[in-house]
Task: structure prediction
Amino acid sequence: MARPLLVIFVTAEAAREGRLVHLDDKFVEGMALYCREWDGPVRVVMPEAPAPPPFSHARDPTALGFDLVLMPPATPPGALLPPEAGMVLGSADSAAQLGLADLCRARGVPLVFGIEYTLGTRLRIARMDPARNAARRLWSAGWNLRQEPRRRAALARADGVQMNGFPAAAAYAGLNRRSLLYLDNRMTAAMMATPAEMAARAARHARRAPLRLIHSGRLEPMKGAHLIAPLVAALDAAGMTYSLDIYGEGSVLPALKAALAALGHRAGGKEHVRLHRPLPFADGLVPVSRREADLFVSLHTQSDPSCSYIEAMGCGLPVAGFDNRMLTPLVARSGGGWTVPMGDVRALAARIRALDADRAALMRAAEAGLAFAARHDFEREFTARTDQLKAICDAATARRGGRGPAGS
Result:
């Protein structure tokens, strides 16, 4: 029997262009999977943006495979919840969506919230926002503090919660008896490093070839990109033979280029520290990481659930980074990396030098991280989430004796 309408409220934005709609490519790919897994109709409600979002393409909304509703600015999400909705997936990271908890409860429609940011992460992001002055940052911090009781109450009232990453699980799992921890990432089983690639990496370590470091991601202060040049300086000062390839763009890039030049590294030159534009994930960054790197270096100072960690592990790369609340438990559970005190680039450089001297430890962590990533590949994590939605929806339908939701 077909399931009722699944309505997904998202935070990603879309923009109109005539009869077409600009949508993020990764979003469309993810929605195709929801349509495949859900045995029934799917509707997506997403905010309407004034301009096309990055990495988007114009698409015919009638050919998407799901019903798309664009939400005008300042529209309460609940105003677009149709009476025939039989299951709702919302985002508790959006304060505007928290009201769905009471609305869905009143209508008898099961609701699952997804969440990934903790209050601490929200406050740190607000504090580091370069686009806001001190007064605006203070106001933002106060606003986040005021929203947290609403968020916790909404999570408690939902029929289930899907928590992306260890920090969100630690903060919110106790609020709801149907809490699901998942580790969001883009690594499919077919993308994982192969035995031949791991053997080639081990052979390089056996002959003590120069250590190949890699860093990828947005080059922004909140991602720790301002610490790349100090790390390079610490590694150079130690006289270590290595290479570092940096893939990314962002506001820190001009200052990073200047800092690397001051250290004697010309951007794009043949030196051992090289800057690159971002690569497409599946057919660019993944093969490069699998075949041309030995260690993923993270400078992430936030505790949000960066997918870069587990994606690097899936490419056969252990991770070295700061002891934020996501990477520390990930390393403890996987054995796929190391952490040093937050923001301590000298300690991170010392750890990298120690790994350069102990290639066996580096390879053990590479194998352990790969095994962990394989147990948490994209397909498994996504299936766990859709299975929870199905179970909650089916239980609600059974309680109603097979009838549709109230108002349908």
